[in-house]
Each structure stands twice: as structure tokens, then as C-alpha cells.
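assembly run, all chains below
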Amino acid sequence: ILNVEQSPQSLHVQEGDSTNFTCSFPSSNFYALHWYRWETAKSPEALFVMTLNGDEKKKGRISATLNTKEGYSYLYIKGSQPEDSATYLCAFKAAGNKLTFGGGTRVLVKP
Amino acid sequence: DVKVTQSSRYLVKRTGEKVFLECVQDMDHENMFWYRQDPGLGLRLIYFSYDVKMKEKGDIPEGYSVSREKKERFSLILESASTNQTSMYLCASSQGADYYGYTFGSGTRLTVV
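ok done. output:
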């Protein structure tokens, strides 16, 4: 089982502030890195699938970067809003392996 | 809007019961997955299927089996439910290789008493 770690486990953000958090994964045999947002009582929703070193993806106020050589991805939320409160999951796929999820970062945006 | 539908949102079963969790997708996806989510452990893969009548074990298959008789339906079976199978169960589907994001159901919270 591959080790995928997310940090921090949880964070509180003031409305309007920007924040970021990390997903760490093995730096060998990279195939793809997924990010999901999971709001309470809803289904996890795919945000990004990243496949190339140096990839940057953006969706509204949320963006992500990828460094496959050192094995990390950052997710950024600019100008956090209460609706950004959710658990953010990353998932790593090595070549020939199944997708492995991290434990998630739980974000709470305070008005 | 594409959908993965899980038959029950909440379920309470007794120890030793045979439990069926149903999942249906309407996107004609080849791949379907069953995960369980426990606090602090992330999503762990139980079983997956890349085609009808095909199944492969994930990381934690013990105590579970699956059935995929039709492309759109993937069932998770707890042969004899135990209290350590109390968890949130998530079904997901995807197309092709893992360059595409997974579409998840809304989950079934199973409590075994």
C-alpha cells in the first residue's frame, strides 16, 4: 500500500483569507494525482486530475500545483468563502497500481 | 447530470446478517469501485471491477464480496456483518484509465450492532 499523506489534517480559515495545504506521495512511478472536494452530506467531487510535472490547474478560486520529482502537490484556495468548507482529498496513482487516497484535509471557513 | 446512486443513505444491521449494498451508475462507465471511509484512515479500496462479471480485490477485501452482473450495477456484499464493518461505504465509477476523475455516490453509512 502506497503512502499518501495530507497536511494539515484540519485547518480553520477566516472568510476572505487565502490558504493552502499539501499532499505528499511517492516520487517514483508517477501516473496521476487527483484532488477531490467532499462536502458534508454530499458525494466527493473531482476537482483536478494532474498528470505532468509542473502541472497547474485552476477552477474558480481553487488551484493546484504538482511536483512529481519531489512528490508533492499543493491545493490553494484564494479568498476563502463559507461554501469552501469541506474535506479535500488527494489520491495518487503509480503506474500499474490502483488509486490510493490520502486522509484528507478538513477546511472550515469561519464567517 | 451524471450520477452514481447508492441504494441506502443509512443502514443498521445486526451482527451475522448478510448485507447487500447496491450501486448503480448511468454513465456507461467501465470501472466501478467500492471504498470504505473511516476517521483518520482516508478512503480504502475494498473491491473494484473493470468489466461486467469481472472483479478484483482491493486493499481490504476480507469479509466482503462483490457482484457485477450488469455494467451499470456493482453490489457489495457483507457475507456475515461484524461490528468492525461499521463504516461509511462509497461507490465510485470512472471511464478508461485513471486520467479521469472518479464519480462518487453519496455514501451509505452502515452501522452493525
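DSSP finds no helices and eleven strands in chain A.

The interface with chain B takes residues 1, 4, 9, 31-32, 34, 36, 41-49, 51, 89, 91, 93, 98-104 of chain A (CB under 8 Å).

not gonna interpret more than that til we talk
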